[in-house]
Specification:
heterodimer, A: 161 residues, alpha+beta, 4-stranded antiparallel β-sheet, 2 helices, 23% helix, 38% strand, B: 222 residues, Cytochrome Bc1 Complex, Chain C, globular, binds protoporphyrin IX containing FE, binds FE2/S2 (inorganic) cluster
Chain lengths: 161, 222
């Protein structure tokens, strides 16, 4: 009776469990680094923020959005790209500036200012924004993104990144 | 539960027969040298897994190859490990294949009925060397560039055909973007496909013919 209490495990069973355990360990040894390796770029922090000089304050027209285009370099993977950044700047008084991204908040197309209508228009799905960047109609879920701005020596800067 | 699922599948796939043919076959009493083929297979799987992972970042053009490899080793989490495993695995693979072949030679395991196993083995050896040769160029640094310059030159001294062989390997007279692209293609498509086919045949034959016994001294005549 005593004998049947003890759970004997056969040589074959023992080998089976050992091999399964070793296989599992090897699988984890490859699997965990592999997952880290694949997702790494997605988790990388975006680059440090930087102030970007748009141009002279005097270029901003009073009361209508003025388009500024600047070239910035951006590191993606192992490549440094030259990218063009387009920013609409609005001022009503020549002192306070609102700098808006031209990227539609719906799915990322580029919006443009239609002077006749006094509205921004996105050609992709007919998104419409007013002069301040608020959504008037169409699918965009939120107003245009704004940059932080500063003025130094009559030059306008935005904080990018 | 698991057994029931196993039964369900077996009824439709007959996988148990396959499993038994592979893992429950009868083998003679052998020694550790008989594990060299399996060891090679293990490293081959390592090369496949890490190699596939490397292609996620590696770009086979002269203006990106070097930088993308540097990016893997310095920027990507675990990139040094994945590349290291592939790099060292390549050398280990060559060593193991040669040792495996030596075992087969020394034990005379290439004889009837295993000649075809041997012949697929010979081609596998060439494939493994081909992996090493084409893979060496891919980092596109000074060492790989000049090693491949020399290696293709060596192929170029073959009588009569040499110049043709060299130009076909390089895809022109010089080492160029064309060379890098075709070495990459060979390394990740042509050779793996060949390896898969040959290893499949090789292992099928090992199982079909059974493993050879360790040769014994004949009993001394009285
Ligand atoms: C990718 C390379 C190779 C792999 C993955 C591989 C794999 C294997 C495996 C798993 C076995 C079972 C027995 C053992 O492990 O010793 C085997 C047997 C055999 N291999 Fe290979 N092999 C490779 C290359 C070669 C080479 C280069 C040769 C010789 C030119 C060769 C000739 C043989 C022969 C003749 C057998 C039968 C041995 C016997 O029945 O005792 N193999 N191989
Ligand atoms: S992307 Fe602008 S409306 Fe859809």
């Amino acid at each position: 009776m005593e004998h049947s209490e003890k759970k004997e495990i056969s040589r074959r069973e023992f080998m089976k469990y050992t091999i399964a355990a070793l296989g599992g360990l090897i699988g984890l040894g490859y699997g965990i680094p592999a997952i880290g390796y694949v997702v790494a770029p997605a988790l990388a922090k975006s680059q440090a923020q930087q102030w970007i000089q748009l141009g002279a304050v005097s270029k901003v027209e009073l009361g209508t959005p003025t388009l500024f285009k600047v070239n910035i370099s951006r590191q993606t993977g192992w490549i440094v790209n030259q990218e063009e950044l387009s920013v609409y700047v609005l001022t009503e008084n020549g002192r306070d500036f609102v700098a808006m991204s031209n990227v539609c908040t719906h799915l990322g197309c580029r919006i443009r200012w239609i002077a006749d209508q006094g509205q921004y228009y996105c050609p992709c799905h007919n998104g419409v924004y007013d002069k301040q960047g608020n959504v008037v109609s169409g699918p965009p879920p939120r107003p245009l993104d704004k940059y932080q701005t500063k003025v130094e020596n009559d030059q306008l800067f935005i904080l990018e990144g | 539960m698991l057994t029931r699922f196993g039964n369900w599948l077996d009824e439709r796939m007959g996988w148990r027969a396959v499993w038994e043919a592979i893992f429950l076959r009868k083998v003679p009493k052998v020694n550790w040298f008989y594990t060299l083929g399996s060891a090679t297979l293990f490293v081959a799987v390592n090369q496949a897994v890490t190699g596939i992972l490397l292609t996620i970042y590696y770009v086979p053009t002269p203006d990106h190859a070097y930088d993308s490899v540097q990016y893997i080793t310095t920027q990507v989490a675990g990139g040094w490990l994945i590349r290291g495993l592939h790099h060292w695995g390549a050398s280990v693979m060559v060593v193991l294949v040669v040792l495996h072949m030596l075992r087969v030679i020394i034990y005379g395991a290439y004889k009837y009925p295993r000649e075809v196993t041997w012949m697929t083995g010979v081609v596998l050896l060439l494939v493994v060397i081909g992996f090493g040769f084409t893979g060496y160029l891919l980092p596109w640094d000074q060492k790989s560039y000049w090693a491949t310059t020399v290696g293709t030159r060596i192929a170029g001294v073959v009588p009569f055909l040499g110049d043709w062989i060299l130009r076909i390997m390089r895809g022109g007279n010089d080492l160029s973007a064309v060379t890098l692209a075709r070495f990459f293609g060979a390394h990740v498509w042509v050779l793996p496909a060949t390896l898969l086919l040959l290893v499949g045949t090789h292992l099928f034959l090992v199982i079909r013919n059974g493993i050879s016994e360790i040769p014994k001294r004949e009993a001394r005549k009285q």
